Amino acid sequence: MFRSVIAAMGLAACLGTLGGCGGSGTTESITSATSENGPLAQVGQIYRAHWQLKDKAPTGPKDIATFADGNPEGVNAVKNGEIVVIWGVKLDDLSIEGDGDSADEVLAYEKATPEQGGYVLMKNRDIRKMTADEFKAAPKAAGTAAAPAGKSS
To answer: Structural domain boundaries of the chain?
Structure first.
């Protein structure tokens, strides 16, 4: 009987830890948005690489198309309008860390962020989650924001 109780308790403990597995996909989208290889991170890498190669900021989606092989999610997210980029922003720090650039200025963001909140790429290439109100109050990097998908600029 004692073994049965121990076995039942062990099984209950194991099953209890599985309750958070599976899920709604929320964890997956958060992970992909904030991961080192997620689309926003790739946009930051592309922006930096464009500066390193051309000594100037990208001015639109055509400028980043050549980076599609190494950063397909980022390029496609920009092309499809899922990520809005502020083009023509001067990066002062081209190191991987980007510490010399502003941690407060927005460089790119998920399309829904202004209305619903979401993930934002800062000028120093950090990724933050902001509410819609935080986003509206956040300074945007000096440049030209892309037109929303489906609209011409």
So the answer is: 27-145
